[in-house]
Write the structure tokens for this entry.
Amino acid sequence: MGDGFQALDIILFAMIAAFLVLRLRSVLGKRTGHERRRPSFSSDNMKSTSKDDKAVEIAPAIEMDSENTEDTTDSSDPIATGLSAVREVDPTFDTENFISGAKAAFEIVVNGFASGDKGALRGLLNNEVFENFCEAIDEREAAGNSLETVIVGIKEINVLEARVDRSTAFVTVKVLSEQVNVTRENSGTVVDGDENRVAPVIDIWTFARNTRAHDPNWTLVETRSPQ
């Protein structure tokens, strides 16, 4: 009799355990492999690749859901058409995250140029732009001058142009910032600028990326002022 009750208890516990497993599975769900990944770009992604080399990941790797891949490009809008072309060669490209990354890169480059920190610039610029920046820094230091720059704020940053040349994507942005720029001699005398004046500054920067490369980072390939 005792053995019969013991066997009945075992069966009852097994049924309860099976019910709990099924219930837990219905609550948690199953992973299908199509869950959206978190965007990898954040302030933490402005990592130093070496002691003197910094990189900003402007375009994060994002897993695209099928409902977000529908092409709604307005063919009459050249910027939208260009961005669509970029997404065709780089499905991970996201305009909003690119803008955030471009803003971060802008601040690093402007501050790095002002302080003469070539290491901070190296990972963000292509060779030609880097050499031009270094030449300007060397000329400034040879003249015994120093540049003080304070970015009070970035008021606006917009995409002006996007295009693809073979496997290389190019995105040009217009940055409207408010800055205080002062150039001083070694003695501290101001030779250019006004430390009490916040001035609007417009920069037009072009970033590029080889979409076939494993490196997800974009580099600054051109800087200019509006004509």
